[in-house]
Amino acid sequence: IDNIPIKLNAAAILREGALYQRKMEQELKRIENLLRGAGDPSEFLEWQKQMRGKDLEEQLAEIECRRLQGKLSHEEAVLAHQNVTQENKKKADLMREEKAELMHQYAQKRLQEQQEMRELVQQVVEGHKNAKQAKIKLQKYKQQIVQEVSEENRELLRQALEEEEEKLRKRYELIQQIRAIESLPSVRHKFVDLTETGGHGLICEMSIVELRERLALLREAQKAAEEEKRDQIIHEKQAKEQLLLDTLDQISLFRAELGRAAALKQEEKKRKSQFGERPVKDERILNLQKKIVEKTMERKKQAELL
């Protein structure tokens, strides 16, 4: 187990330090109980872990069987769908051929009817040709009259707009002149005595000079308070940094010990696995996998035929 250094923030360092502290307290309590004569529950815990492992393997085998059964059902459904698609395709091809034949017959009949209608229309057009030309001339004459009236109306509208714009321009110039006269500043001179009070008859009245002195004193007091607060924050920050450094040292020690313990546990597990029996795969899973392979090959062949 490699102890890879990871950059942690303050909350993570304190959280991990508290976790290792609780683990150390639990280990000390366990050792104290052993010294008092209490039994070590590690054997019972190991047996309980083995039983849970067996139960977990059985549950995983059952889940794998269900998954493979679902996959097999899917392959069978896809194969059935392909068979139905092939049947529908045959029916569609037959119906397409019949429809093409009917459309060909219908097209021949429509061509014959159109030829007859074209001859009748030609006869009617020749009879109404003169009346149509007279109607076109009358329409052109009406359009010319409408165009002349529109031009005359546009000229009158343009003249009215120009007169209205001239009135608005003169009114705007007059308003600008009035605003310029009103905006001229008025010159006022007044002497201000900074040492004189307002004369309102109040006990707490102060002059501008006294107010400035009072403000300067308040600013100095505020500055001193800020300096004191800044020093306090710096001391707290240094104490917190020292706490984090101490916690990091403890975390490094705990990680090193946990790494060595994990390495020993891994070696023990590997040594046991070398002498232990390999688990045999469930026969139900093997049968389901074989059926799935057969259905998949059959589906691929059917898909190539389609």
UniProtKB/TrEMBL annotation:
Xref: InterPro entries: CFAP99 (IPR039341)
Coiled coil: 103-178, 208-238
Top-rank taxon: Eukaryota
Key words of the record: Coiled coil
Annotated protein name in UniProt: CFA99 protein
Organism: Syrrhaptes paradoxus (Pallas's sandgrouse)
